[in-house]
Amino acid sequence: MIFALTEAGAYQPLDPVPRDDGNVLAHRDGMGTWRARSITALDEDGAPRHPLEKRYMPHFATCKGPRQQQLPANVTPIRRKK
Q1: Residue 67 domain-assigned?
Q2: 8 A C-beta contact, residue 77 and residue 40
Q3: pLDDT for res 82
Q4: Per-residue pLDDT for the chain (82 aa), expressed as one digit of tens each?
Q5: Element (H, E) at 4
Q6: Full residue range of the structural domain in which residue 26 is found
Q7: CA 1, chain centre distance (Å)
Q8: Under a CB-based contact definition with an 8 Å cutoff, are residues 53 and 25 in contact?
C-alpha cells in the first residue's frame, strides 16, 4: 500500500499497482514523497498533468476489510455490544 500526500495535506492509502481505471493521479516528488490528487480536481483546475503521474485506485475502493482470525477449537468467540 502507498500512502500519498494529498493537496489538502492528508494521507490517502492507494493500491501499489497503477490501474487504468484508477481515479487518483499520483507520483513521487524530488524528495521521494508520494503526492496524490483526484482526476476530478485536475479537470476542475485545468492544471496540466505531471509527466510522472500515473493512475492509482484508492485502497478504500478495493479493500475487502480485515480478515476474521480463526480461533482455536476450544475458544468461544465474543462479540462486542454497541
Answers
A1: no
A2: no
A3: 59
A4: 999 999 899 999 999 999 999 999 999 999 999 999 988 877 677 777 778 899 999 999 998 887 777 888 888 877 755 5
A5: strand 2-6
A6: 2-61
A7: 7
A8: yes
Number of domains present in the structure of the chain: 1
**Three-state SS at 3:** strand
Q: Please indicate, yes or no, if residue 34 is contained in any of the structural domains.
A: yes
In a domain, 6, yes or no: yes
Instruction: Return the C-alpha cell found at 26.
Output: 499520483
Residue 41 maps to a domain:
yes
Q: What is the pLDDT of residue 81?
A: 58
How many Å apart are CA 5 and CA 29, to the nearest integer? 11
pTM for this prediction: 0.71
User: What is the C-alpha separation between 24 and 42, in angstroms, rounded?
Assistant: 10
Among 26, 34, 29, 28, smallest CA distance to 56 is for 26
The residue among 43, 44, 46, 6 whose CA lies nearest residue 27 is: 6
